[in-house]
Write a structure and sequence with these properties.
The chain is α/β, with parallel strands linked by helices. It is built from 13 helices and 19 strands. It folds into two domains: 252 residues, Alpha-Beta Barrel (TIM Barrel); 128 residues, Beta Barrel (Lyase, Ornithine Decarboxylase, Chain A, domain 1), CATH 2.40.37. It has an eight-stranded parallel sheet with strand order 8-7-6-5-4-3-2-9. It has a six-stranded antiparallel beta barrel with strand order 10-13-16-15-14-17. Bound molecules: pyridoxal-5'-phosphate (PLP).
Length: 409
């Protein structure tokens, strides 16, 4: 805490910022890589890691985190679209980048020009991608010495969102043989409920998805098609379901320091003990005003907070326009001088009010941590997310563009 208070960082702007610890990010990455490569498995080649850096790196800055993760040893990267992939390439990242949500018709040439790896999620896309691959190979006089462009196939095994249905494997195979400029580099699926362990239909879903996926893979192999790199596991599956790790895993939220919202919630403690992580982002602001109000006075829009006692109310220079979730109004709390102070009233776009009556010596200029770590104190974003029935990624991605990211080693 004291370290932050005394910080010599000169702020010549509105005091709200997100501190991103690239050291914590690299540590989380190494912990995950070690976790999915247990020595007793005696794998000849280590299981690969595809780091998910979409959504601007879950709000941490996609290009910046991709660069740091490449240095830490990430084998692959996952972005959502061509634009995100280009931003990662422009940061100098050389490792393969998978464009998870595929391409919109017409976008495929740009995707390939930037050496991004396309995802096919509908059989009809093969022809489009093959034409774009033919053009890029002709233009470059061969694709780095190869005359085929690699892509990954997404299978929908139960989420009913994106991916070919297992029943379309034969159709996919028959169309693929017609594509002279493509090669299948990988096959994957995405889990809908890998964090759920209850005795319910949802709790059973991951196992069903796995069964469907491997059955479809076997049919693909029987048709003479090598699936390439096989990958399924997102964060919850990485942390809790070793049977899903296959050739490569795709960590998202755990890279950024948080276990997902397991059901039952007790799973979190077990998982945190097995795979300890450090929060990468700390969202901070400062107190810009303090006022004393009498008992019965209201605070903020619609007076949704009425003081039950004479109170000291501090105003923070950050609101929902910066990424403080509006539903934390009258529910959340923040770290100030090592203590938790409750958020009072409705959160405004640009400011948030907190009750500092019980926090001694608070003053204008004090640093306040919305979530993340503050010296030895931690305000975990996943605990906050759960308290307002959302997911950690929602909170992290919500940190808006006007909040500068400050990177540290
Ligand atoms: C295909 C795919 N894989 C992996 C992930 C990472 O998910 P998580 O943050 O739960 O690890 C995502 C994120 O939604 C995804 O879309």
């Amino acid at each position: 805490m004291a370290g932050i208070q005394k910080s010599s960082r000169k702020e010549v702007r509105r005091p709200v910022w997100a501190e991103i610890s690239l050291g914590a990010l690299a540590e989380n990455f190494r912990a995950i890589r070690k976790f999915v490569n247990p020595p007793e498995e005696q794998r000849k080649t280590p299981r690969k890691i595809l780091s998910i850096v979409k959504g601007n790196g879950y709000g941490h800055g996609g290009p910046q985190v991709a660069k740091a993760l490449e240095k830490a040893g990430s084998d692959w990267f996952g972005v959502t679209c061509t634009e995100e992939g280009i931003a990662v390439r422009e940061a100098g990242v050389r490792k393969p980048v998978l464009v998870l949500t595929s391409f919109w018709p017409g976008e495929e040439s740009r995707l390939l020009e930037h050496r991004l790896t396309a995802v096919i999620h509908r059989c009809e896309q093969l022809k489009q991608l093959d034409s774009a691959a033919a053009r890029i190979i002709a233009k470059k006089g061969g694709n780095q010495g190869r005359n085929r462009v690699s892509f990954h196939l997404k299978m929908d095994t139960g989420m009913n969102r994106l991916g070919i249905a297992p029943g379309d494997v034969e159709c996919f195979a028959s169309q693929l043989v017609k594509c002279k400029h493509l090669e299948l580099g990988g096959v994957f699926t995405h889990f809908a409920s890998s964090e759920v362990f209850t005795n319910t239909r949802v709790g059973e879903q991951t196992r069903q998805q796995e069964e469907r996926f491997y059955a479809a893979l076997n049919r693909l192999r029987a048709l003479g098609i090598d699936p390439g790199i096989v990958h399924l596991a997102n964060s919850a599956a990485i942390a809790t379901r070793p049977e899903t790790w296959a050739d490569m895993v795709r960590p998202g939220v755990i890279l950024y320091g948080y276990h997902p919202g397991y059901d039952p919630v007790e799973r979190r403690q077990e998982s945190e003990a097995r795979l300890p992580l450090r929060p990468v982002m700390s969202l901070r602001t400062r107190i810009i005003n303090i006022r004393s109000i009498p008992e019965g006075a209201g605070v903020g829009y619609n007076e949704t907070f009425l003081a039950k006692r004479p109170s000291r109310i501090a105003v923070l220079a950050a609101g929902y326009g910066d990424g403080i979730h509006r539903s934390l109004g009258n529910r959340g709390s923040v770290l100030v001088r090592g203590s938790l102070a409750p958020i009072v009233g409705i959160i405004s776009m640009d400011v948030t009010m907190i009750d500092v009556t019980d926090v001694a010596d608070t003053a204008i200029g004090d640093v306040v941590t919305i979530y993340g770590s503050d010296g030895r104190h931690v305000r975990p974003a996943n605990v906050i997310a759960r308290s307002i029935a959302t997911v950690t990624s929602d909170l992290l991605c919500a940190v808006s563009q006007r909040v500068p990211r400050v990177y540290s080693k």
